[in-house]
Amino acid sequence: MVRYEELITVPAFDRIPFLDHGFGTSGWKEEDFEKLKGGRGFRVLYLHQVHSDIVRLVREIPEQGQRGEEWQGDALVTTLPGLFLVIKSADCLPVLLVDKKRRAIAAVHCGWRGTLLSVLRKAISVMKESCDSLPEHILAALGPAISGWCYEVGEDVRQRFLTREFPASLFQSVPDRPGKYYFDLREANRLELRQAGVCDKNIFSVDICTHCDSRFPSFRRDRENTGRMFSFIGLRHVR
């Protein structure tokens, strides 16, 4: 049996009949993918995530035994049914994308480095160029991640974002800690979606802070004892 209480979904995505998706708590394990309803025959595809802007377009189902982990990158895009595109995170923001018209999907890992490099916008560009997706048709689900009042960064990070013309409002000074700022990673990526042409009404957010909510892994909270959160999206085979 699948422990659905360990899986958070977005209602707007739930209503798409050919789509499976979810954001797992710490209780959601890799073997749970095998138990998903409709998951029979699905392959689970991971990346070797490196906090980059590298987007991998999946054009064919990997051979049996291949998991994709030899691919470096931080976003997966496909139109192929029968694949779960998986992102691992522990405070970073997982973003799932779907274009219902073209039946194109993406899973994107957005840490501050990937956000600075516009990995989310680049994933949408790959959907446009390779899947004929239009940004106004794309739905985006932002999963649990560290909140803007728990994510502390230094002046060097702030300056790098300001240089790339991200707004200063994404950063708030940390009281009594000169040169330290709280950074709103979620809002930064919401802005990236808007810049890419995704409509506000098509952006959905699971506003849970992984640092504050003990149900989720948090590197900032637990350091070396941190597990990983699994976020996934997949297209079902159409019968």
* Poorly predicted tracts of residues: none
CATH topology-level name: CNF1/YfiH-like putative cysteine hydrolases
Please tally the helical runs, counting DSSP H or I stretches of 4 or more residues.
6
> What is the N-to-C order of secondary-structure elements (H for helix, E for strand)?
EHEEEEEEEHHEEHEEHEHE
Total number of beta strands? 14
| Biggest beta-sheet profile | 6 strands, mixed
At CATH level 2, the architecture is 4-Layer Sandwich
Output the strand order for the largest sheet: 4-5-8-7-9-13
Q: In the CATH hierarchy, what is the superfamily?
A: CNF1/YfiH-like putative cysteine hydrolases
Shape: globular
Number of domains: 1
Q: Which percent band covers the strand fraction? A: 25-35%
On the 0-100 scale, what is the average pLDDT? 93
Oligomer: single chain
What is the rounded Rg? 17 Å
Helix content bin = 10-25%
Distance between the termini: 24 Å
* Global structural class: alpha+beta
Name a few traits of the molecule.
CNF1/YfiH-like putative cysteine hydrolases, 239 residues
Structural features, described:
The chain is built from 6 helices and 14 strands. The mean pLDDT is 93. Strand 7 and strand 8 (104-110) form a beta hairpin. The protein has a single domain, classed as CNF1/YfiH-like putative cysteine hydrolases, CATH 3.60.140. The strands form 3 sheets. The chain has a 6-stranded mixed β-sheet with strand order 4-5-8-7-9-13. By secondary structure, the chain is α+β, with helices and mostly antiparallel strands.
